Amino acid sequence: MAQTLKTTPLHELHLSLGAKMVEFAGYDMPVQYPLGVMKEHLHTREKAGLFDVSHMGQAVIVSDTHEAAAKALETLVPGEVQKLGIGRQRLTVLLNDSGGILDDLMVSRPPTDGRLNIVVNGACKEDDYAYLDARLPAGANLERFDNRGLLALQGPKASAVLAKHAPEAAEIKFMRFAEIEIGDIMAVVTRGGYTGEDGFEISTWADDTQKLARLLLDDDRVEPVGLGARDSLRLEAGMCLYGHDLNPEISPVEGNIAFTIGKRRREEGGFPGAARILRELADGPARLRVGILPTGRAPAREGAKIQSTDGTDIGVVTSGGFGPSVGGPVAMGYVSTEHAATGTDIQLVVRGKALPARITDMPFTPHRYFRG
Amino acid sequence: MTIMYTKDHEWVRADGDLYVVGISAHAAEQLGDVVFIELPEVGKTFAKGDDMAVVESVKAASDVYAPISGEIMEVNSAVVDEPAKINEDAMGAAWFIKMKPSNASEIEALMDEAAYKDFAENS
Fold it and tell me: Largest CB tally within 10 Å, which of A28, A134, A283, B118?
């Protein structure tokens, strides 16, 4: 089994750090290091955590001009890509013809004209690339960056840690990026991440990724953090995990990420499944992703039924567990829209017992981004 | 005092007429930080191998099975209030329940310390 798994440029480093390895997205990945999920999570919120996210798909859409590349991508996503400024990144979603989400991805516009960088989920990348290859209009092509690694440095000390090696990193604002030298390593550094904390995602040539990771880990404020804490951090931050909170049946309106649908796109349409998505924007979706706070201490996991207080099934939990920074259980899931209002009392069915809970706003822990 | 183990990583030791049950230090280490535990109610009866309790880490929930058949006589409310004790002292203070066995000979089929150590290292 293990020998059939793909590895990232940091595989050797994970093993040398004593990581517990698991299969994820076809890769042999660290789920936790000796510190453990709880302490890795808390350390990230207190200081800084370093994550290997090299399993994610990095690629570029190439065309003659920005306008051509943006128009090509806009045939498959509902985001405003044409007006994306140089050096800026935004979240968007790849849609199927029913308006369901095939993946959520970051799109950014580098200085070179006619190029749009994308970062897609590791588990989806082969399907995404096949879909883009098949569906991008003539004149736009996908090029994979399989020879690049990706690190995430997240937490309130991330900026100071990175600035030690590259002072200009501290100046980058949330959802913007710059190509900078860290030590002697050329890197594309984006401010943002998947924890709700200030931080960076750092793309380098795969040959340099391990060297950069070791450089960052040399700082006492930085601990390596595995997939376990990555999941609890993003859950507390109210962010979706593709394949759990988002899937090909769910639209961006239902997924409560309608901010990914650009203003002009709402008027013009022209993306897959536009009829459904525009109807849901106008009339409201049948179901909605919501935050859920269980009243007691029992975590409600993915798959737990959500009921109204009279015991009627109204939805299902799609992510749930214990939030180390919240100090208790947190969850998100889909409920029929009439039950989706913040403050609505509900119950969650855990091991056959209906436990009280409440619909709540997300994030569960406040976002602390650097907006300059 | 002899401690016996199951293949599901519960331990059992005699305490007067009763048997004390917990999960092994090896199991606690594998689970990681325990954040929630659900224990059965006093008076409930279980057959050997029944789901009896649940232990949850940040990542996942794991079932704990009755290592022998019997009735729950006492539960450790301290470990319910402070599940992290399981990571600190799984074999001692973080015991789960005390059972009155309905068939005490079942304990003889369990693994002793040496057999469990060998089992845990190779599983």
Answer: A28
Looking at the complex, does the CB of residue B18 fall below 8 Å from at least one CB of chain A? no
Report if residue B111 sits inside a domain: no
The C-alpha atoms of residue A6 and residue A23 are separated, in whole angstroms, by: 9
B-facing residues of A in 273-312 (CB < 8 A) are 297-299, 301
CA distances A125 to A132, A179, A370, Å, are 10, 24, 29
Q: Retrieve residue A146's tokens.
A: 């399989």
Rounded to whole angstroms, the Cα distance separating A372 from A317 reads 36
Q: Which CATH architecture has domain A286-372?
A: Beta Barrel (2.40)
Q: Is A65 exposed, middle or buried (0-12, 13-18, 19+ CB in 10 A)?
A: exposed
Give first-to-last CA distance, chain A, whole Å.
Answer: 47
User: Residue B2 has which token pair?
Assistant: 């002899």
The count of structural domains within chain B is 1
For residue A41, list chain B residues with Cβ-Cβ distance below 8 A: 58
Asked if residue B72 belongs to a domain, the reply is yes
Residues of chain A with Cβ-Cβ distance to B35 below 8 Å are 38, 299, 322, 324
Q: What pLDDT sits at residue A167? A: 97
Q: What is the dihedral of CA A214, A218, A222, A223, to 10 degrees?
A: 60
Chain A residue numbers touching B59 (CB-CB < 8 A) = 31, 37, 228, 231-232, 321
Between A and B, how many residue pairs show a Cβ–Cβ distance under 8 A? 44
Query: What is the residue-level pLDDT of chain B in tens, covering all 123 positions?
Result: 589 999 999 999 999 999 999 999 999 999 999 999 999 999 999 999 999 999 999 988 999 999 999 999 999 999 999 999 999 999 999 999 999 999 989 999 999 999 999 999 887
- Cβ count near A51 (within 10 Å): 27
Interatomic CA distance for residues A117 and A61, integer angstroms: 6
CATH node for A2-54+147-236: 3.30.1360.120
Q: Which domain holds residue B79?
A: 3-103
Check CB contact of B58 with chain A, cutoff 8 Å.
yes
- On the CB side of A324, CA atoms within 13 Å amount to 26
* B residues 62-121 closer than 8 Å to A (CB): none
Greatest alpha-carbon pair distance for chain A in Å reads: 63
What's the burial of A134, exposed, middle or buried (CB within 10 Å: 0-12/13-18/19+)? exposed
Task: Report pLDDT digits (tens) over A339-355.
Answer: 999 999 999 999 999 99
> Do the beta carbons of residue A288 and residue A313 sit within 8 Å?
no
Residue B6: how many other CB atoms lie within 10 Å: 23
Q: What is the ipTM of this complex?
A: 0.88
